[in-house]
From TrEMBL:
Pfam families: Pyr_redox_2 (PF07992), Reductase_C (PF14759), Rieske (PF00355)
Domain annotation Rieske: ranges: 66-161
Subcellular location: Mitochondrion
UniProt keyword terms in alphabetical order: 2Fe-2S, Apoptosis, Electron transport, FAD, Flavoprotein, Iron, Iron-sulfur, Metal-binding, Mitochondrion, Oxidoreductase, Transport
Tree of life domain: Eukaryota
GO BP: execution phase of apoptosis
Name this protein carries in UniProt: Apoptosis-inducing factor 3
GO cellular component: mitochondrion
Entry similarity comment: Belongs to the FAD-dependent oxidoreductase family.
Record InterPro entries: FAD-oxidoreductase/Apoptosis, FAD/NAD-bd_sf, FAD/NAD-binding_dom, FAD/NAD-linked_Rdtase_dimer_sf, Reductase_C, Rieske_2Fe-2S, Rieske_2Fe-2S_sf
Statement: the UniProt record of this protein carries the keyword rRNA processing: no
């Protein structure tokens, strides 16, 4: 079955000896982002940016040059990780030309040599981010930074790479950005761009505007008390501190004049007068508006739901508190959602007991199908997680105000010191009800391929929207995942600047449990069959989700880079037939 895909996307990898990078690193690797300042609104920037001087090789000591291979050592379509003494680079040969860029994905440090090379870009094997091999620029997400690009020269049949030590060591490059011109002239109650929500969609929108040379005022507001952080980390690595998961340091926002109003809730939007009205009475005029409010977790509706030590995990404080309370105690998790399952996996070795309550008969059945769901369930059971399936919670009982027991509709009573609720979420769009912005029956904001709502100048992005997915014949879908939120924010920003850019990306997501990852690409909603290759019992498999004769999604475990490979085929607009993978 790999043969078919290999024909579509040719890749051969040369793997270095010691390379198992740590996948669950901080959101943007360990290095702090390099910061570049630029004034004015020029849109085309120098390829090899450098934080200090315009000449990238101002300090000869900072530059290394090394012969890395013979020209015939690499075939077209091959990648190789090469060592320059003080750091590594990724050497790529495509269409007879050599390119050299950073070798690690800036998102979580994945080795790109194990990724997928296709038509001028390399796709990360772990989470699907894509980078242009000529410029190093990020072209699909997740992550915020691009790769450093290095000079390649050929002399006497040998390939040489010339690079700055700093770039080799940081393995990341922040794109050049404009700054705001004379902030002091602004009236506090008006802004050019207002972004409601400070998740991935909001932040990427603000950064894209600055990268494109936009030099007017940008204000982001959030109900959170923190600057943007890596929210998917909260359930995967629950004792992370804020500084470990912050998407950008405080100085970044100051440097690029991206104003963030924390603990500020918008209560209504007056689209006629272009004014956002905050809960505390503040009014702010805007020219362009992005709504990226995400979703609100559903609460339990049972008796005793107000008891202490029952959590929805929304903030780093929530996650940290749950770990503290759960250590050596009894935990009940309600809902075998991605959040519920990740929390169960994280707490399994820390808590005295972990019980998981779910209405369905198998976890992830609707998403991954019954067979994959059962294999995952078995992995959890072998790690001491007890499942109570096809039932729900009827009551939470307390002792001295704190949670003591969880009573199930089946009559079973579970001991519980802490309860985590992961039963889904609803879009956080209640404040838009009377606004005139088009919202569907489930509360999602309806946007077109340019992330525009029905109101001119008003855009929406992230978990709260439905948009036309090219992959599924422009069916309106909601894709509440991290990569997609990044892309939505990027597309919205380009269209605020009238670029006429339509979204055309393949959804890509991942979940991490017990040190293992399931990767997933495509949109499998409504699949009618699953073709599985490999061994489910060994947790080394790839599952192709098909609808009639077409592969609409793929999931894998311990089978890299198959999901990235399929994502590249789908991104190229090609169809994979069921018979191709059977």
């Amino acid at each position: 079955f790999l043969f078919v895909l290999a024909v579509e996307v040719k890749i051969e990898v040369v793997i270095p000896e010691k390379e198992r990078s740590k996948e669950e690193m901080s959101p943007n690797g360990k290095a702090s982002p390099l910061v570049y300042k630029v004034n004015g609104t020029a849109r085309h920037y120098h390829l090899e940016e450098h934080p200090i001087a315009s000449n990238p090789y101002h300090n000869p000591k900072d530059v290394v040059e090394a012969s890395v291979c013979h020209v015939k050592d690499l075939e077209n379509g091959q990648m190789r990780e090469v060592d320059l003494g003080c750091g590594k680079a990724l050497l790529i040969k495509e269409s007879g030309e050599f390119h050299a860029v950073g070798h690690k994905c800036p998102h979580y440090g994945a080795p790109l040599v194990k990724g997928v090379l296709s038509k001028g870009r390399v796709r990360c094997p772990w989470h699907g981010a894509c980078f242009n091999i000529s410029t190093g620029d990020i072209e699909d997400f997740p992550g915020l930074d691009s790769l450093p690009r290095f000079q390649v020269k050929i002399e006497k049949e040998k390939v040489y790479i010339r690079a700055s030590e700093q770039a080799l060591q940081t393995q990341r490059r922040t794109k050049m950005m404009a700054k705001c011109i004379s902030l002091s002239n602004y009236n506090l109650s008006s802004t050019n761009v207002l972004i409601i929500g400070a998740g991935a969609a909001g932040l990427v929108c603000a950064e894209t505007l600055r990268q494109e040379g936009f030099s007017d005022r940008i204000v982001m507001c959030t109900m959170d008390r923190h600057l943007p952080y890596d929210r998917p980390k909260l359930s995967k690595s629950m004792d992370s501190h804020l500084e470990q998961i912050a998407l950008r340091p405080k100085e970044f926002f100051r440097t690029y004049d991206i104003e963030v109003l924390t603990e500020m809730q918008v209560a209504a939007v007056d689209i006629k007068n272009k004014i956002a009205i905050f809960k505390d009475g503040l009014k702010m005029e805007y020219n362009k508006l992005l709504i990226a409010t995400g979703n609100t977790p559903k609460a339990l509706s049972c008796k005793g739901k107000e008891v202490e030590n029952v959590f929805n995990i929304r903030t780093p404080e929530d996650a940290n508190r749950v770990v503290k309370l759960a250590t050596s105690k009894n935990v009940v998790i309600v809902g075998a959602s991605f959040l519920g399952m990740e929390v169960a996996a994280y707490l399994a070795e820390r808590a005295h007991s972990v019980s998981l309550v779910e209405l369905e008969e198998v976890p992830f059945k609707k998403f991954f199908g019954e067979r994959v769901g059962r294999a995952v369930m078995k992995m959890f059971e072998s790690n001491r997680v007890k499942f109570y399936m096809q039932t729900e919670v009827s009551e939470l009982r307390e002792q001295e105000g704190k949670l003591k027991e969880v009573v199930l509709k089946s009559g079973k009573v579970l001991r519980a010191d802490v309860c985590v609720v992961g039963v889904g979420a609803v879009p956080a769009t209640g404040f838009l009800k009377q606004s005139g912005i088009n919202i569907d029956s489930k509360g999602f904001i309806v946007v077109n391929k340019m992330m525009q709502t029905n109101i001119p100048g008003v855009f929406a992005a992230g978990d709260a929207v439905t948009f036309p997915l090219a992959l599924r014949n422009n069916k309106k879908v909601n894709v509440p995942h991290w990569q997609m939120a990044h892309m939505h924010g990027h597309i919205a920003a380009l269209n605020m600047l009238a670029h006429g850019m339509e979204i055309n990306t393949v959804p890509y997501l991942w979940t991490a449990m017990f040190g293992k990852s399931i990767r997933y690409a495509g949109h499998g909603e409504g699949f009618d069959d699953v073709v599985i290759q490999g061994d489910l019992d060994e947790l080394k498999f790839v599952a192709f989700y098909t609808k009639s004769d077409e592969v609409v999604a793929v999931a894998s475990m311990n089978y890299d880079p198959i999901v990235s490979k399929v994502a590249e085929v789908l991104a190229a607009g090609r169809t994979i037939r069921k018979r191709d993978v059977e």
